[in-house]
Amino acid sequence: MRLFLPTAAALLLASPTMFSGAQAQGSSSVTGPELASRKRRANSDSKSNASSEEKRGLDLIRSYNEELLRYLQLTTADENSLVPTPGPTLAGAEVPTEAPLVPSECIVDVDITCTLGGSGLPCESLTAPPLGICVPADGSDLSIVTFEFQSTPCAGGDNDQGTDAVCTDVGPGVPPSGADVSIVCEDNAEMSAIVLTVTPSSGITAGDTFTVEEMNGGPLPLSMVCTISDTGSGAVLQTNTFDLSGDVSLDLKDSFGSLILVSCNDVTCIEELNVVYNLSNVGPDSMTFLDLFRDFNGVAENLVSQVTPNPLLPGQSTSVSEEFTIDVCTPGLFRISIAVEAEPANGPVCLADDVIEFSINERPTTPTT
């Protein structure tokens, strides 16, 4: 862009006053003195007009320069605000895109196995022992018996031995539940050479069991007396005498004061259950176990902290084990269930569950074959 800036001289030459003065001189006839007087006035007016016109010209130049500067500033700002336009895309060219995230797949399998601690047979094979089994039909002797201790006075005993069973509370009687007792069992016959072993013999609390057997594995005495004492002070709390000869009634669940008979020889009311929860990742991706809830007859617990390893890789398996003790002399239904929740790296959770049930019926009146 080309700009033309007026100068003071140019503005003076373009003054209308100067042009009008020149025209007046050329159109009149005057005398000498008047002409001299007019020249003096003209010179004075010319100087005055020139000074005024020069000031106007300078003001005009200053205003013009300000407008020019403002224009240049606006032009520079517009150029800096321009955004480059991307060039055209080649025809047929493919723009690369990010591959979509494929969600992980979660498939978990779980099953429960339950076996008996003594025989390894399935828990479903459990049956209640027959009544009267502690008096062997073949006349064989008892070699080992197991009792459960309960803090019960003599009046709470329940058996059919009549006067052959004698219970005596001594001093303050049996301590409340939670207190430790010691138990010693001996042959009731005087001067007997039979030595009985009690296991455990001390630190016994309500609900604990202990066994009594002849030290060398021989038969138990015909009559036995057991003394219950306070573990701390040694004070006698209760004594119990009962018949083991087989000539009088003796059965599982018979109670003698604080002692309840729970097994005789190899027949028992107490069964140990070995329960195993088998977990397998049968899906294509690794998974992390979030929960593993076990419910055994209404008693629930989350066992996920026992899952090792966790997470499981595809095709990998693991297991969690537990042991339970149940009373098979009391009829009832036993139910064990497991519910598992697992989660893959970037997909929805998956669930699995399993359950087993078995029942114990009333004890039969005669031994089963």
UniProtKB/TrEMBL annotation:
Annotated region described as Disordered, given as residue ranges: 22-55
Where does this protein have compositionally biased stretches of type Polar residues?
22-31
**Presence of keyword Signal:** yes
Report the Pfam families cross-referenced here. Answer: DUF7467
Keyword rRNA-binding tagged: no
User: Signal peptide span per the entry?
Assistant: 1-24
Q: Which domain of life is it from?
A: Eukaryota
**Sorted alphabetically, which keywords does the UniProt record give?**
Signal
**DUF7467 domain span:** 145-264
* Name of this chain's protein: DUF7467 domain-containing protein
Q: Which organism is it from?
A: Phaeodactylum tricornutum
